[in-house]
């Protein structure tokens, strides 16, 4: 749709929007304009309408002084007779402090045909502004919440056939910035320019089914499966009769229907579930075949009294049930269904039916006459009695002779009706007081010839004064004021700049605000004041208070009479202390109260006793005595009755009130009252339903007898005032603000970038002058944009980039250092090189031309693309038929990745995010592609995709219908490099962006986010097995060393033990076995024997080879140790302090031995010299060590 409007504007001005499109023809231009208007209106939530009234260009000139057509007359310098071909063009954009006539028309634009010459007017529009007139009318639809503030540029142009350039054909331009609320009334504007003057009217109207001050409240009446409701003038749903619930989808069952055993699909029904029956589904079904049994739960058969058996079919008291014995016979039960009759004298038979002398016992009672008949006897009863023995009193009340709820009392041969208080007569057919209980809301009842008439209190109408008058129905508030209905009048809540009873006064000099601008006001940037800001009221004290600023940024609220609290939101309870006397009920008002008096009391404070004798109720000369809610008549001349009206009885139909029964006691009467009533005439309620204090949260109970009504305090509602009234309905917060409901108050928590009591103020981020070095600041939502001078760049123009080459991109030229948006990416020109972020944008969702609504405002396609249908869009919130995708000249590049939604795949470059939504908050017409496009266009996505390509894929979750699965893939340059850290940062950054409050309606519905990423790097997979192998080898080595050391120590202890035994014996053991035959072993045996005679030495070696050799020799000695013990006959003793042993290779090892006590030796033996003469011994040449 944006393409259509651009085409229109370009046709009217060749230089507009840099000449993006070319004109085709005038006929094609106007056809496209009308088709675009129809399409936009069908999709929008409202429209801005401008109606031209009169245009005057006396000289037929252009704004630059030239003639529209022809040349000036050389004599009088007037333009020729050919007049201007005048048409109008309108540009509607956001509210601008400094209005720029160039740039995009953000809110929309419109144009007319050539509608006149130099001067013309539309008479129908001038005489009747509400009449529809297409001539001179320009309609600009919008599909967003109307922002109230706007800037309007109205231009008059001359249509030329091409002899002049389009910019030279401007006749006059009018610029207006103002505020306007939607409504039917028009605002008439007269503009007088230097060249021409014109008069026009404007108004903003909401489309059908859209309501509210911003046309953003949708309510469409329906009566189908999805709901049964209508919409009031404010767009609130009201359920049809018989339906309830938020969307009126729950049917109200038949009154009295037991909802535990009954259901209904339509109003008034009561369909019983299995096992239950009856009109109200409160009777259970007994077991099939149960004869005389009952049930409490379905399929039971609990026998009634005197019945037994499995199906309660056996009569255990046949005598009591059937009474078979006649003529006074006595019945005796013998067994189930069996009996015997004991007959009196004169009777016999099974049932004593045979009479011998039946009348002997005088069976007829109450004066009846007995006659013997063949079957027994027969009684002839007097009047008023009946039955076989005249024992039954005839019930004259069986025909219900008493009307209007009267109670019938059966008497002998007659009846008496006890009528309700307002009825009298034999059968209660006379209406005594037709006004009783008819008029409501404090109305006064008056009797008339045709019945009663209710004189209603102020603010109420209707036959019974039960309808509150809507004082706002006529729309008394002007200038966009909001009307609130009061009890007997109305109150207008005026917009900023207006005051008065009906918002008729315009505060041009802003006298409505005080000098302090702290918490009581909100500052908005403007150039219209010296301070550069415009202060508007914050309404923090609500409609019943006035804000007073205090030092240190504090404030106090000065409340209107009758209100209190921090924000003047509490109505002062004028019923504390209770002013009403004698049990009266006090109802609190605004600086007032009202007392509802009990019967018998009246007056403002219920302090005046009602004089029941004022109506002269006593007749026939009776004297009336006034009592509390009652009277007493002292009768004269034997008159009787409550009012001395009867000669015969003290009782009549009006003696006892409230259904009481009167009994005559001769000279007085007594009333038997129904439950809940006491007193001599049943005129006082025994227990009030308000005694249990059913009303909660300060509610006032009004009632008596069996019913009560709770009058709730402000902020509470419900039958017992138990529910906090939702002050956030309708939604008072704009621009994504969250409403916090309190008790009779609310607070708006604004989204970033907005402020004010209802979040409708866009904060001017340029107010703090963030742009440096002479750059220009452009305010945006929750951000700003710095337009840097030549040679500067950066968010604040703080980077010095110098002068470089310009860049050409998509046929356009961008200066060095400039930044621009390219679909979902951000690009920058750096010295002739274009650097863009690398987010895969995909095909953008768009709205088809056939109509519909969705979460985005217009969803236009980029330049050169059009919106086409797509068969594979996944719908998340129906209906989605209006969505398509933007066409692309080239097919999208293929995706080669295993990281897809719902695939379960994860690696170093893949992350999965699950977005769980609240379905009630998701806008209708939302697709999964809409949600994915929102993620791709997040600013954080552009920041993360500077070096690596970021791919975001979305699909509906297979496991949760309220969730959307998102897969994020980070593709490194040339598919190389580690992207694990980048993908984790990207997932965390996007989750952080979603957690912040933003202005996207779709993302506000996200209630939970789940993230899955690959935590361990890929190299860890090889490191773990290597570490396990190393630790296993170390453990095995330790075990082997421990076993070797244990065995070594064990053998050394065995050798030391043998040496101690030899020393104690002090002699050499004889050889038990002959020496070995080989001479090669002799040297080893001698060395081992000498070693054994020495204590464990401490060695210090000067070479590693000697150690190794010595260790080898020790091992050999260790193996031959046992042989020496067996073969030697005596052992050598060594007492030298130091023995030097020459090792192989010239390595000298010194052995230090502790002094050893010389053993006691026997006779000298040549064998003992083996240690000394070691060099001479014939040993094997393998033994290289010599002992001295």
TrEMBL record:
Keywords: Calcium, Developmental protein, Disulfide bond, EGF-like domain, Glycoprotein, Membrane, Notch signaling pathway, Repeat, Signal, Transmembrane, Transmembrane helix. Residues 1104-1115 have a biased composition (Acidic residues). One of its GO terms (biological process) is hematopoietic stem cell differentiation. InterPro entries: DSL, EGF, EGF-like_Ca-bd_dom, EGF-like_CS, EGF-type_Asp/Asn_hydroxyl_site, EGF_Ca-bd_CS, JAG1_1/2_dom, Jagged/Serrate. Pfam families: DSL, EGF, EGF_DL_JAG, hEGF, JAG1, MNNL. It is found in: Membrane. The chain crosses the membrane at residues 1023-1045. Residues 1077-1092 have a biased composition (Basic and acidic residues). It is a single-pass type I membrane protein. Residues 204-248 form the DSL domain. Disulfide bonds join 206-215, 219-231, 239-248, 343-352, 381-390, 419-428, 435-445, 456-465, 494-503, 559-568, 597-606, 635-644, 673-682, 712-721, 750-759, 788-797. GO terms for cellular component: membrane. Residues 1069-1121, 1151-1177 are annotated as: Disordered. Residues 315-353, 355-391, 393-429, 431-466, 468-504, 531-569, 571-607, 609-645, 647-683, 686-722, 724-760, 762-798 form the EGF-like domain. Gene3D superfamilies: 2.10.25.140, 2.60.40.3510, Laminin (2.10.25.10). GO terms for molecular function: calcium ion binding; Notch binding. SUPFAM superfamilies: EGF/Laminin. CDD domains: EGF_CA. Putative Notch ligand involved in the mediation of Notch signaling. This is Delta-like protein. It comes from Oncorhynchus mykiss.
């Amino acid at each position: 749709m944006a393409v259509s409007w651009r085409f229109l504007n370009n046709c009217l001005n060749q230089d507009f929007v840099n000449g993006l499109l070319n004109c085709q023809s005038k006929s094609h231009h106007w056809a496209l304009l009308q088709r675009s208007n129809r399409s936009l209106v069908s999709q929008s939530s409202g429209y801005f309408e401008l109606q031209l009234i009169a245009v005057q260009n006396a000289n037929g000139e252009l704004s630059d002084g030239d003639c529209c057509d022809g040349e000036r007359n050389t004599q009088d310098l007037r333009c020729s007779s050919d007049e201007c071909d005048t048409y109008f063009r309108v540009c509607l954009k956001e509210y601008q402090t400094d209005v720029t006539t160039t740039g995009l028309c953000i809110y929309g634009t419109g144009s007319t045909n050539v509608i006149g010459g130099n001067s013309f007017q539309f008479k129908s529009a001038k005489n009747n502004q509400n009449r529809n007139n297409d001539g001179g009318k320009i309609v600009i639809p919008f599909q967003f919440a109307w922002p109230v503030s706007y800037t309007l540029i109205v231009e008059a142009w001359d249509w030329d056939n091409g002899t002049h350039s389009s910019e030279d054909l401007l006749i006059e331009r009018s610029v207006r910035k103002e505020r306007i609320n939607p409504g039917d009334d028009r605002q008439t504007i007269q503009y007088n320019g230097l060249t021409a003057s014109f008069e026009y009217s404007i108004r903003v109207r909401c489309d059908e089914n859209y309501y509210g001050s911003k046309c953003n409240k949708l309510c469409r009446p329906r009566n189908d499966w999805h709901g049964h409701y209508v919409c009031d003038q404010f767009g609130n749903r009201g359920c049809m009769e018989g339906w309830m619930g938020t969307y009126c989808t729950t049917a109200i069952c038949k009154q009295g229907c037991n909802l535990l055993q009954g259901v209904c699909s339509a109003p008034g029904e009561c369909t019983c579930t299995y096992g239950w029956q009856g009109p109200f589904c409160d009777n259970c079904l007994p077991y099939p075949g149960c004869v005389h049994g009952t049930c409490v739960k379905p399929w039971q058969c609990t026998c009634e009294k005197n019945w037994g058996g499995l199906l309660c079919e056996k009569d255990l008291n046949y005598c009591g049930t059937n009474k078979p014995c006649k003529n006074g016979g006595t019945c005796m039960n013998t067994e189930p269904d069996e009996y015997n009759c004991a007959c009196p004298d004169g009777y016999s038979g099974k049932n004593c039916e045979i009479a011998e002398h039946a009348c002997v016992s005088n069976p007829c009672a109450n004066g009846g006459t007995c006659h013997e008949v063949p079957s027994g006897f027969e009684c002839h009863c007097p009047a008023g009695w009946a039955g076989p023995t005249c024992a039954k009193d005839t019930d004259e009340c069986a025909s219900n002779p008493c009307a209007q709820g009267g109670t019938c009392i059966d008497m002998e041969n007659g009846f008496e009706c006890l009528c309700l208080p307002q009825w009298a007569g034999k059968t209660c057919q006379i209406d005594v007081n037709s006004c009783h209980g008819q008029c409501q809301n404090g109305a006064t009842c008056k009797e008339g010839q045709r019945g009663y008439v209710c004189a209603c209190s102020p603010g109420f109408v209707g036959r019974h004064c039960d309808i509150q008058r809507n004082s706002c129905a006529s729309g008394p508030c002007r200038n966009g004021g909001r009307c609130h209905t009061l009890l007997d009048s109305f109150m207008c809540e005026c917009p900023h700049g207006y005051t008065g009873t009906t918002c008729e006064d315009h505060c041009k000099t802003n006298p409505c605000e005080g000098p302090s601008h702290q918490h009581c006001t909100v500052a908005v940037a403007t150039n219209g004041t010296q301070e550069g800001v415009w202060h508007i009221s914050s309404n923090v004290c609500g409609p019943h208070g006035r804000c007073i600023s205090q030092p240190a940024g504090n404030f106090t609220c000065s409340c209107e009479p009758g209100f209190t609290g921090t924000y003047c939101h509490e109505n002062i309870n004028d019923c504390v202390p209770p002013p009403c006397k004698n049990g009266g009920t006090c109802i609190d008002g605004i600086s007032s109260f009202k007392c509802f008096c009990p019967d018998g009391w009246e007056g403002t404070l219920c302090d005046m006793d009602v004089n029941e004798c004022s109506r002269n109720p006593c007749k026939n000369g009776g004297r009336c005595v006034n009592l509390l809610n009652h009277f007493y008549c002292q009768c004269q001349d034997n008159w009787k009755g409550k009012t001395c009206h009867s000669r015969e009885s003290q009782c009549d139909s009006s003696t006892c009130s409230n259904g009481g029964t009167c009994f005559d006691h001769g000279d007085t009467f007594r009333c038997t009252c129904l439950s809940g009533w006491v007193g001599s005439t049943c005129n006082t309620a025994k227990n009030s339903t308000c005694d249990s204090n059913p009303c909660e949260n300060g509610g006032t109970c009004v009632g008596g007898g069996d019913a009560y009504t709770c009058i709730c305090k402000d902020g509470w509602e419900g039958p017992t005032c138990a529910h906090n009234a939702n002050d956030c309905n309708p939604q008072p917060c704009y621009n994504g603000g969250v409403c916090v409901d309190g008790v009779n108050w609310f607070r708006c928590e604004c989204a970033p970038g907005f402020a004010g009591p209802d979040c409708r103020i866009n904060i001017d981020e340029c107010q703090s002058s963030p742009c440096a070095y002479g750059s220009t600041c452009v305010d945006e939502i929750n951000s700003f944009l710095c337009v840097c001078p030549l040679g500067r760049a950066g968010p604040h123009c703080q980077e010095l980039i110098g002068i470089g080459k310009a860049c050409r991109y998509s046929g356009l030229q961008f200066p060095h250092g400039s930044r621009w948006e390219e679909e979902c990416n951000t690009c920058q020109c750096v010295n002739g090189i274009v650097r863009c972020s690398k987010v895969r944008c995909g095909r953008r969702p768009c709205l088809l031309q056939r109509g519909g609504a969705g979460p985005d405002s217009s969803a236009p396609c980029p330049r050169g693309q059009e919106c086409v249908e797509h068969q594979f869009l996944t719908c998340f919130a129906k209906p989605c038929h209006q969505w398509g995708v933007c066409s692309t000249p080239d097919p999208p590049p293929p995706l080669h990745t295993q990281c897809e939604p719902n695939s379960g795949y994860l690696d170093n470059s893949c992350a999965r995010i699950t977005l769980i939504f609240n379905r009630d908050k998701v806008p209708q017409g939302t697709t999964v592609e809409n949600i994915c496009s929102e993620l791709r266009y997040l600013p954080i996505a552009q920041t993360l995709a500077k070096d690596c390509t970021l791919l975001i894929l979305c699909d509906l979750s297979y496991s949760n219908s309220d969730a959307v699965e998102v897969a994020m893939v980070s593709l490194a340059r040339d598919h190389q490099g580690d992207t694990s850290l980048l993908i984790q940062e990207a997932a965390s950054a996007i989750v952080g962006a979603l957690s912040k409050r933003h202005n996207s309606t779709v993302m506000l519905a996200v209630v939970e986010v789940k993230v899955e990423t690959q935590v361990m790097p890929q190299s860890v997979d090889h490191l773990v097995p290597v570490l396990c192998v190393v630790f296993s080898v170390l453990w095995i080595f330790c075990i082997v060393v421990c076993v070797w050391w244990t065995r070594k120590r064990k053998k050394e202890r065995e050798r030391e033990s043998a040496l101690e035994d030899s020393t104690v014996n002090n002699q050499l053991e004889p050889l038990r076995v002959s020496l070995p035959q080989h001479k090669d072993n002799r040297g080893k045996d001698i060395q081992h024997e000498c070693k054994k005679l020495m204590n464990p030495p401490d060695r210090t070696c000067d070479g590693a080879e000697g150690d190794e050799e010595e260790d080898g020799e020790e091992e050999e000695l260790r193996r031959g140790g046992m042989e020496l013990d067996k073969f030697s006959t005596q052992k050598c003793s060594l007492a030298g302090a130091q023995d030097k042993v020459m090792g192989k290779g010239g390595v000298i090892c010194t052995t230090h031995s502790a002094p050893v006590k010389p053993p006691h030796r026997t006779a000298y033996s040549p064998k003992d010299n083996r240690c000394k003469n070691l060099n001479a011994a014939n040993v094997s040449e393998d033994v290289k060590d010599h002992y001295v």
